[in-house]
Amino acid sequence: MKLTLKIWRQESPTDRGRLVSYDMPDAAEDMSFLELLDILNQRLIKKGERPVAFDHDCREGICGSCGFMISGVAHGPQKLTTTCQLFMRQFKDGDTIVAEPFRSRAFPVIKDLVVDRSALDKIVQAGGFISARTGSGPDGNAIPISKKNADLSMDAAACIGCGACVAACPNGSAMLFTAAKISHLGLLPQGQPERKQRALRMVTKMQELGFGACSNHGECEAVCPKGISIDFIARLNRDYMVASALETMEPVKKV
Amino acid sequence: MARAMTFYSTTVGKKVVMAATGVLLVLFLIGHMLGNLQIFIGAERLNAYAHFLKSTGELLWGVRIVMLAAILLHILAAVQITLANWKARPVGYAMKKDIETGYAARTMIVSGPLILLYVIYHLMMFTFLQTPQGLSDTDVYGNVVKAFQQPGISAVYIVAMLVLGFHLYHGIWSMLQTLGINHPKLNRLRRIASAVLAILLAAGYISIPVSVLLGIVH
Ligand code: HEM
Ligand code: SF4
Ligand code: FES
């Protein structure tokens, strides 16, 4: 199949950047999007041009490294799918596809399609942990957890931190990501001791990093490759309200 | 106090303030609409109701002050949040598709200020009687009829109520979500209930100028 790629090329964080067109006359339906870029890059290298920079690691949809905007949708047109798992059969012969980096103040572009998503790590560092006893693991089923909460917690824990939610949100908000992390721990007994401080710290950090607010547009859930539900955002709001009423935020104790 | 300031310093805190003031404003809209619809019972009933409201004195002022505070807080949070949201994406996309969001949700910062302009116009006309039509202090029914018989005034009211309906179509469900009022089984219902209430409110208010224009109320 014949495709035209319009790819965002940006030399450095300070370069202004521009869309550049590339003809791909021999794309195959069974190629993944990243494989198509691999082929393009081989050609660019042969011609002595700089290859397109993009993030990737597992290429099987589980690590959260890959991801950019594909014709206006984070991770492209297929639901519940990361960029690495998107295959060219989702497109038609003759299509023009626009590839742009995720955009947010908190995600500065490093090069081409690569953005710095360490802001998400900083949100987790602010409160996405529990105080666990070290040593041997506890006995299985020593702490009873209801099936409902175990399932919900697992749903939240499926977040791979790809940042598509931020990219898709008209406000560049990291609420879905943060809500997933807060809920994943807050639904389990092990997450209870720090539950209130976690909500205060992670929400405050999100604010400091320059992410926008949640206007309940629902764009995040629509593009999330792991189907994280905005129900978790309602849960975050509840946790934050309760925490604000009962506790004052304390700095994380360094040990 | 310090805790309240910290709470408000985050976007989540500001949204909760918007949603809480939104609850007050929506409750007021429901009450105000039910009060106004008494116009269909007749002049005596509406004028008696207006007289009753004025006779409550301090209570009326209490409600007025709470509503004023609610709308000021709502606007403050709305403006701060919108500015923060615009700053959060300094470089836009060459191509961006909306999948889930809609027109009403995307234009909250347009429908909101339009409502504000309308509220000022409305209060000037019917509460402070600062309009050239020579409205009376006691005959509320007559005032309403006199005003709405002018198609221009009716048109402003009808358009304003459509805008309000848009604001609430997204606003009511958004308010429930912001306040964490959700349940997996009820979430679809939340959207439907929000749309129904928005339509009922807009239709209820619009029925008055339309009925005057059609001569049903005279
Ligand atoms: C009768 C008057 C009004 C009512 C009943 C009302 C109601 C609401 C409600 C229920 C929400 C949803 C809150 C949430 O999601 O937490 C909302 C959001 C909003 N309101 Fe109003 N509102 C009114 C007037 C205004 C005015 C005068 C403005 C002017 C600036 C305004 C601007 C906004 C904005 C920008 C949002 C969306 C904020 C966001 O989520 O990004 N509203 N309104
Ligand atoms: S919530 Fe979904 S879209 Fe957002 S970072 Fe996690 S996996 Fe990616
Ligand atoms: S490369 Fe790991 S999820 Fe796509």
Write down the CATH topology of chain B: 3 helical TM bundles of succinate and fumarate reductases
Which stretches of chain A of 5+ consecutive residues score pLDDT under 50?
A: none
Give the percentage of residues in beta strands of chain B: under 5%
| Gyration radius over CA of chain A | 20 Å
Q: Architecture of the largest domain in chain A, according to CATH?
A: Orthogonal Bundle
Number of strands of chain B: 0
Give a topology summary.
The complex is a heterodimer of chains A (255) and B (218).
Chain A: E1 3-9, E2 18-24, H1 33-46, E3 69-70, E4 73-74, E5 96-100, E6 109-111, E7 114-115, H2 118-127, H3 147-157, H4 164-168, H5 175-186, H6 195-208, H7 219-223, H8 231-246
Parallel strand pairs in A: 1-5
Antiparallel strand pairs in A: 1-2, 3-4, 3-5, 6-7
Helix pairs in contact in A: 2-5, 2-6, 3-5, 5-6, 5-8, 6-8
Chain B: H1 2-9, H2 11-36, H3 43-55, H4 58-87, H5 103-106, H6 108-127, H7 140-148, H8 151-178, H9 187-213
Helix pairs in contact in B: 1-2, 2-4, 2-8, 2-9, 6-8, 8-9
Give an overview of the whole structure.
The complex is a heterodimer of chains A (about 260) and B (about 220). With about 260 residues, chain A is of the alpha+beta class. Chain A folds into 2 domains: about 5-110, Beta-grasp domain (Ubiquitin-like (UB roll), Roll); about 115-245, Fumarate Reductase Iron-sulfur Protein, Chain B, domain 2 (Orthogonal Bundle). Chain A is about 35% helix and about 10% strand. In chain A, helix 2 runs antiparallel to helix 6, helix 3 (about 145-155) packs antiparallel against helix 5 (about 175-185) and helix 5 packs across helix 8. The longest helix of chain A is centred in the last third of the chain and has 16 residues, at about 230-245. Chain A is elongated. The N and C termini of chain A lie far apart (about 60 Å). Chain B is globular. The longest helix of chain B is centred in the first third of the chain and has 30 residues, at about 60-85. Chain B has a single domain (about 10-90, about 105-215), classed as Fumarate reductase/succinate dehydrogenase, transmembrane subunit (3 helical TM bundles of succinate and fumarate reductases), CATH 1.20.1300. Chain B has helices at about 1-10, 10-35, 45-55, 60-85, 105, 110-125, 140-150, 150-180, 185-215. The model of chain B has no long low-confidence stretch (mean pLDDT about 95). Chain B contains 9 helices and no strands. Chains A and B meet through helix 6, helix 7 and helix 8 of A and helix 1, helix 2, helix 4 and helix 8 of B. FE2/S2 (inorganic) cluster binds next to loops of chain A. Protoporphyrin IX containing FE (HEM) binds next to helix 2, helix 4, helix 6 and helix 8 of chain B.
